[in-house]
Amino acid sequence: MADAVHTIADIARLAGVSKSTVSRALNGSPLIGAETRERIQAIAAEHRFQLNAPARNLSRKQSNAVAFVTYAYKKGLVADGFLLEVMSGVSSGLADEGYDLLVVHVDPEDTDWARLYLESGRADGFILMQATCTERHIQALRALGAPFSLWGGPPGAHGYCSVTGDSFTGGRLATEHLLARGCERIAFLGGFEVEREVGERYAGYQAALAAAGRPLEAGLVVYGDYSPALAATRIRELLEREPDLDGVFVNSDVMALAVMDALRGEGRRVPDDVAVVGYDDVAAAQYSNPPLTTISQNGPLAGRLLAQSLVQTIRTGVVSSHAIPAELVVRSSA
Amino acid sequence: MADAVHTIADIARLAGVSKSTVSRALNGSPLIGAETRERIQAIAAEHRFQLNAPARNLSRKQSNAVAFVTYAYKKGLVADGFLLEVMSGVSSGLADEGYDLLVVHVDPEDTDWARLYLESGRADGFILMQATCTERHIQALRALGAPFSLWGGPPGAHGYCSVTGDSFTGGRLATEHLLARGCERIAFLGGFEVEREVGERYAGYQAALAAAGRPLEAGLVVYGDYSPALAATRIRELLEREPDLDGVFVNSDVMALAVMDALRGEGRRVPDDVAVVGYDDVAAAQYSNPPLTTISQNGPLAGRLLAQSLVQTIRTGVVSSHAIPAELVVRSSA
DNA sequence: TCCGTTCGTGCAACCGGTTGCATCCCGATA
DNA sequence: TATCGGGATGCAACCGGTTGCACGAACGGA
Questions:
Q1: Burial environment of residue B161 by CB neighbours within 10 A (0 to 12, 13 to 18, 19 or more)
Q2: Within 7 A of a protein CB, which nucleotides of strand C?
Q3: Residue A74 banded pLDDT, cuts 50, 70, 90
Q4: What is the distance between the alpha carbons of residues B139 and B157, in angstroms, rounded to a whole number?
Q5: Which residue on chain A is closest to B81 by alpha carbon?
Q6: Are B334 and B178 in contact (CB under 8 A)?
Q7: pTM exceeding 0.85
């Protein structure tokens, strides 16, 4: 039994060539003759040889890894299945490009983590989701000149990649659906008012109403913070002010579930008295009572795009923006 | 302005010492005089110096990273919030020990990934969850002699760390609660029958019935595969066979949500006709209809323990097992 | 005063790849 | 046949840390 093969020097000895030739052959360099290259690759494969990542990263001065950054966990807030879906897409997108995925939970107040990861050579770039990062994080990354891509960022962003749902269409589809089922007074319960996505969903809501020749009533538009508790409060306040409300477009499923709960608590039937459309199509949406009609976004696809565009930025400096389609999933709540 | 400080050689120059002294000082080696060490650390801090991770990993022949391994994503199956909670705990536990967290999605059929990560020096150990890995994966890891820790594995496992919920107590608490609210005929809907956790929950169920002097009826015990669809099927079959069923302990919330749905579909009220207790306390449990009474396990805690025990194994070879408490969360479904 | 410790530090090799440059061999051209 | 060009390969330096060992100084004891 031959000794274990652990380094390119071992392969070099076996093949009767030099380290450099092995290195080039394994990296598919055109400098190496086709015949030699194939022979070396065959030997490497036979011994199931793996390049040593730290050594390669040291030489190349890059880590071949990307950090997926989220807040330190808070119960009920980021436990969103959508994050998992996106992460899964990120993971496979990165794997296809030969990058590893690092998951980092940072403190919302801390802005130094990016420099740490970059300067220590542990990550070449970052992926964030707007829902779990602050504007300060984004500013810090831009100041560093760090490559990153962001879910939910503005489409024409400067200096970084963004992937986002087509929130305008989402808002329009949701509202059109409520109109189509005959709702007369349709409320809008948004997430944080300052978020661009929320603004676009609102624009979609507005557009659908306008297209149907309905008035836009400012009193029917309220905002929350994505927490179920506040969503429930908002819907109760709204109900008191506007008792003849008969439909509501809620900006997230987690809020929508709480809203349906609150509506029931107030004696309204869903969807008979008040129809509810959510957003995100979280796993729980299909088991809620009633199953939630919602807007679905393809999380894994979003993740793939985040990964691909980030890798492109790392390699070529090119930044890009993408919008993925929003789709209406009709269940029973509207 | 001095040139940028990027390597220990720069620090060495600034401090008027050698590279080795800097390296030792920054690693807190007792070989270096306290005074020198502090001076060097001060200089490093002043320049916000970061050691280069690949170089260090290359020298030390370890990666200071751990891979959290899950299946390639499948909609609705692993989208469990519990996984996210555990991961969050793993992340902070590893961060405390100076390890990075790598997330790897593997193909269920592939058993070679561990060797790849180990031999390429990208990970020093692995963390898996039984729900998202196969027995083959575990066998492959053991055959490799790779350090790993497993959520949901057998407590006295050989060769690896395990962290698990106290499933016996969980099963007992759930069943006792159903008994306490007056249920007479309590069914058990398990996950995969072969899983140890499922067996323990069943044992807890059994023990609670025995303690109450109730008979154990084999016809009330059925198993699913954690999918909502099969759970719904099982409960309908059960209902047909045992129409006077008035309580059911379901092995996961996702199944429990589907079960409640199916029960309603069959015209039974929850909890009035049939009381339901779930397991896991997923985020959706509190917004379901009715809100689900369930067994909660502290995911972040589990994650921390997985991380800590794995790091201990990597450093010292010691393997350990932990069980975290199960807690009953009473809502409205039972 | 001389020697053996002990303590603190530096030297240089090493970890396992990558890569600029020199070298060599070959056929093609003059 | 001598020369030139270019493709294929090897040499050796380098990436930025870590660490075994040697070395020098200060100290205590005999």
A1: buried
A2: 7-20
A3: low
A4: 12
A5: A79
A6: yes
A7: yes
